[in-house]
Amino acid sequence: MNNRRVILVSRPTGVAQAENFAIEAAPVEPLADGAVLVRNEVLSVEPAMRGWIADKGNYSAPVAIGSVMRALAVGAIVESRHPDWRAGDVVTGWFGWQEWAAVEPTAILRRVTEADLPRSLALGVLGINGVTALLGLTEIGAPKPGETVLVSTAAGAVGSAVGQIAKILGCRTVGIAGGPAKVAQCLEKFGYDAAIDYRAAGLGEAIEAACPRGVDVYFDNTSGAISDAVYPRLATGARVVICGTASIGSWDPWPSGPRIERHLLVKRARAQGFIVFDWRDRWDEAVARLADWVRAGRLSYQEDILDGIEACPDALAGLYRGDNFGKRLIRLAAGEP
Amino acid sequence: MNNRRVILVSRPTGVAQAENFAIEAAPVEPLADGAVLVRNEVLSVEPAMRGWIADKGNYSAPVAIGSVMRALAVGAIVESRHPDWRAGDVVTGWFGWQEWAAVEPTAILRRVTEADLPRSLALGVLGINGVTALLGLTEIGAPKPGETVLVSTAAGAVGSAVGQIAKILGCRTVGIAGGPAKVAQCLEKFGYDAAIDYRAAGLGEAIEAACPRGVDVYFDNTSGAISDAVYPRLATGARVVICGTASIGSWDPWPSGPRIERHLLVKRARAQGFIVFDWRDRWDEAVARLADWVRAGRLSYQEDILDGIEACPDALAGLYRGDNFGKRLIRLAAGEP
Questions:
Q1: Is the pLDDT at A276 greater than 90, yes or no?
Q2: Nearest partner of B130 among B306, B302, B8, B316, judged by Cα
């Protein structure tokens, strides 16, 4: 049985490009005691992968050169040598950009139990993205009904969920996205009250027009020029959820921008970083809540599905180019088990 | 009865200098119904006055050109036309840089009841500075015993109280101050575990040496180069209390600095602005707690007292030059009532 896997072969300074990866084939080794063999069905592509690869300024050890690219995936267990897991169990976890993953159960994030919903959702709206949106928004953003919630990368996998959840919670929602197509999607598919194209002129004025009483919650996925336009327009008592820095190409050298301390001071505002992996104990509860909203048609999602492991090497660079509409995933062909 | 008062005659772009003020004399007018007449004994000088004068980037309407400089003061009521207040009451409040203040009782911040302690303390360790230190540290910084608390302007009126209170609460305390004399004062008078001269070379390395497990709470009175050296050294889960921006000479044009979003994200850290005037309902309780520590000899303070209203115009500029040791105050001569 052959396994194809995507190896990190060199470390980029900015976003990893196709040439930083190589696809190699290797036989699946006999399974060790205590491990399970997962056949990956869908692989995930995250903006955060840029950070997982970087050797500075991050929250985890970088992916080693020569090893399989770290990634979340969903699949079914085909063989188990661990008493808690059985062949046929559908699981999501840290299975990497590869077709087959022989892993310890600690790599499993959760058992996928929503049999009525597509398994791929476990990587997006019912996975890292949806849980980030729900817990980041409610625990750090703490929005109150009637408040204005502004979201950057508003049509993205996290942002689109933030906007819809904020709306469910009774907030006015304003999305910032790149280009007219994503702006239209914000308004038509994700129900934002207003949407702004950051590539158009006059971003600051557009935010002011869309948020006449200021921004109560800023869910920040970008940093950079978008944030620079938001901070002067925070409302008194505002909360900023710092979830990502997608607009920053590289942190080496460390970029500068307008100082935010004075805005935080005069607005008595709070900015706080959020990393969903700190919230493992809330994950199942969050997924259950999100799944109910999906079933009720209150939480829409958009998937951007590429086919075959050959799509992996360029998939992350494409995300940073803005090629994708919605959550980027890679579907693996149903091969011989 | 003549009143001498300090008028703002022109608006500076940076810190107000002596020439931005003028001293004028005017008779004390007959007292209106509902007002009280306070004879000011001590006037306060605050770093925040720079912001109160500025016409942008602040939390309150700027002091109008031609009006008395906004200031806290302490004094005794000599005449009352309000039923809640009597001649002889010692009060602190918004009485301005002047010898006599005819004010509505809404200008009174509190009745000074600590008859056993110097009245001037109501402007410092038992006033805006001490209350800022106590509530900013405990409510925003939320330090836990054993954590490392780093304080900028560590020998100043707020900073020295923060350091001592953090020590009382069981924290390890590290102060940053300007020059060897203030560093010595941090160690000898205010009991910091370590103190750093930010004017010496190697600020970042000095912070690392003094905070080997990182900075859990950063009480920030300065912004600027000091903060730039602190953010990369925050511990996971750190809290930053943004209390002042003393190192920034002007916010017009708005200054830039290294972006802090990535530090907040990877450290899951929080930065939050604190303005003590939002906490009026906690003021009396905070003063009582502070006064107990002062009486017990656990909370030291340093006053930097200038004499006579003639000292006012240059007093703020001197604060920004770093002329003062401790809380800067102006004592008015005991004149004829």
A1: yes
A2: B302
pLDDT score for A160: 97
Say yes or no to pLDDT of B236 above 70: yes
Mutate to test the interface with B, among A52, A132, A227, A265 (most CBs of B within 10 A): A265
Does residue B266 lie within any of the structural domains?
Answer: yes
CB nearest to B245's CB, from A257, A265, A274: A265
Q: Give the predicted TM-score (pTM) of the model.
A: 0.93
Distance from the B241 Cα atom to the nearest Cα atom in chain A, whole angstroms: 9
Which of chain A's residues have a Cβ under 8 Å away from the Cβ of B223? 259, 261-262
| Nearest residue in A to B235, CA atom | A59
Q: Does B261 contact A278 at a Cβ distance shorter than 8 Å?
A: no
The pLDDT score that the predictor gives to residue A57 is 61
What residues in chain B have their Cβ under 8 A from chain A's Cβ atoms? 51, 57-59, 220, 223, 227, 242-245, 248, 251, 254-262, 264-275, 278
Is pLDDT of A221 > 70?
Answer: yes
Are B162 and B185 within one domain?
yes
Handedness of CA B207, B210, B216, B220 (dihedral sign): negative
| Chain A interface, best mutation among B259, B260, B270, B272, by max A CB count within 10 A | B259
Q: Is residue B195 part of a domain?
A: yes
* Closest CA in chain A for residue B225: A259
Cβ neighbours around B141 below 10 Å, total: 29
Residue contact B261–A220, C-beta within 8 A: yes
Which tokens belong to B2? 């003549």
Give the residue numbers spanning the domain of B190: 128-277
If you count residue pairs, one on A and one on B, with CB atoms under 8 Å apart, how many are there?
A: 115
Higher pLDDT pick, A61 / B10: B10
Confidence of residue A337 (pLDDT cuts 50, 70, 90): very low
B69-121 pLDDT, tens digit per residue, is: 999 999 999 999 999 999 999 999 999 999 999 999 999 999 999 999 999 99
Nearest residue of B to residue A264, measured between CA atoms: B273
Confidence at A334, pLDDT banded by 50, 70, 90: low
- Identify the residue with better confidence: A227 or B336: A227
> Of the residues B262, B277, B292, which one is the last residue of a structural domain?
B277
Domain tally for chain B? Answer: 2
